[in-house]
UniProtKB/TrEMBL annotation:
GO molecular function: transmembrane transporter activity
Annotated InterPro entries: CzcB_C, MFP_Cation_Efflux, RND_pump_MFP
Biological process according to GO: copper ion export; plasma membrane copper ion transport
Source organism of this protein record: Thioalkalivibrio sulfidiphilus (strain HL-EbGR7)
Alphabetical keyword list: Signal, Transport
Signal peptide bounds: 1-25
PANTHER family cross-referenced by the UniProt entry: CATION EFFLUX SYSTEM PROTEIN CUSB, SLR6042 PROTEIN
SUPFAM superfamilies found in the cross-reference section: HlyD-like secretion proteins
Pfam annotation, one family: CzcB_C
The protein, known as: Efflux transporter, RND family, MFP subunit
């Protein structure tokens, strides 16, 4: 067989092997492939070949990333954690009961229950004799004030001519000032009565935007001064109301933060106000709050909250998941050049998802704050293997 025929035969055999599914990898010498795999395995486990110091877990960067272990700095703070129960309620400025300022006959009812209204929109028109009288008195007082001003101006001119004594000028000036004051008072009464027109019609308006809840008058009926006309509320304007122990009233201030859990998710809220010794709540403290961002669940939804009081800015804290129990001791895993060292600590109070560290850390360390339990398991596995 000629060399050319030998090359053709070898090429045909190579094509047949590829077509059978062996692939190029099967043609690589086994010893070379094995050496490559061994090298990769050595890269991943090189650190494990050496004996790890006691209490130290050694992981490669690839293993840390794959396990989701998070390294954080030691925090500052601490305090007492109190759990609260509450609900979502309409905000205090989101509901109003509207009353008639003056008594009279209901001429028009321009809304119905469920009607959306804007701030300043007319709800009911009332015709009131009292309002008409107030308007007339205001107009009369304004006319009297104008007449007094003209008289004072005339006396001023006559004084310059020597016809009127200065004493009379001073008297006319006093009458003018008194008339002006009476006119202002009469006009203020008109404004307080709803600014009726000359016929005594008063438009009763909504002070807020929202939805009409109830309408308590009908056209043709009579409404007394102070009588209820309608109720308006804004269901979109809500706030959080928590019930707290009375002792908490002196520790919570406006601006404090609350971690809130609701049916629609967790969020942070800021305290708006604190009311102590609310009788209808059994002398409990009521805490009003609004979310820092986002929209609250519907009114009536139950919520729970956690508030931290008696904060200590100079204390050391770590995430609650960072503290693990190893051989009956509380430890945190501190990141070092050689790995993660289980460092014994003295844990204090837990508040806001963090635990105070009273002893064992100086605050400069970087620790494992996420998935620290994986290092605990790895440490236990290493100790078990070492014992065998």
């Amino acid at each position: 067989m000629t060399p050319k025929n030998i090359r053709l035969l070898f090429g045909a055999a190579l094509l047949a092997a590829l077509g059978a599914g062996f692939g190029l990898a099967q043609l690589i010498p086994h010893t070379e492939h094995a050496a490559h795999v061994k090298g990769d395995d050595h890269d991943d486990h090189d650190d494990h070949d050496d004996e790890a110091p006691e209490g130290v877990v050694i992981l490669t960067a690839r293993q840390i990333e794959a396990s989701g272990i998070g390294i954080v700095a030691v925090g500052r703070g601490g305090g007492n954690e109190t759990r609260l129960t509450g609900r979502v309620e309409s905000a205090l400025d989101a509901r109003t009961a509207i009353s008639a300022i003056v008594g009279g006959r209901v001429e028009q009812v321009q809304v119905a229950p469920g009607s959306p209204v804007e701030a300043g929109q007319t709800l009911v028109v009332v015709i009131s004799g009292e309002a008409a009288t107030l308007r007339a008195n205001a107009e009369a007082a304004a006319a009297e004030a104008e007449a007094s001003r003209l008289e004072y101006r005339r006396d001023s001119n006559l004084v310059e001519l020597g016809v009127v004594a200065r004493r009379e000028l001073e008297a006319s000036r006093a009458r003018s000032l008194a008339a002006d004051a009476a006119a202002r008072a009469a006009q203020a009464q008109v404004v307080a009565a709803g600014a009726p027109d000359a016929q005594g019609r008063v438009a009763i308006v909504s002070p807020i935007a929202g939805v009409v809840g109830t309408v308590q008058v009908t056209p043709g009926g009579f409404v007394a001064a102070g009588g209820g006309v309608a109720e308006v509320s804004n269901p979109a304007q809500t706030e959080l109301v928590f019930t707290a122990p009375p002792a908490l009233a002196a520790q919570v201030i406006s601006g404090s933060r609350i971690e809130v859990r609701s049916p629609s998710g967790d969020f942070e809220a800021v305290v708006l106000g604190v009311a102590a010794n609310v009788r209808e709540q059994g002398n409990a403290t009521l805490i009003r709050a609004r979310p820092v961002s986002g929209v609250l669940p519907p009114a009536g939804s139950p919520v729970t909250g956690v508030i931290v009081t008696d904060r200590q800015e100079d204390g050391l804290t770590v995430p609650a998941d960072a503290v693990q129990t190893v051989d009956g001791r509380s430890v945190v895993f501190v990141a070092t050049d050689e790995g993660f060292r289980a460092t014994p600590v003295l844990a204090g109070r837990q508040a806001g998802g963090h635990i105070e560290i009273l002893n064992g850390l100086d605050g400069s360390e970087r620790i494992v704050g996420i998935n620290a339990f994986l290092l605990k398991a790895e440490l236990a596995k290493g100790e078990a293997e070492h014992s065998h």
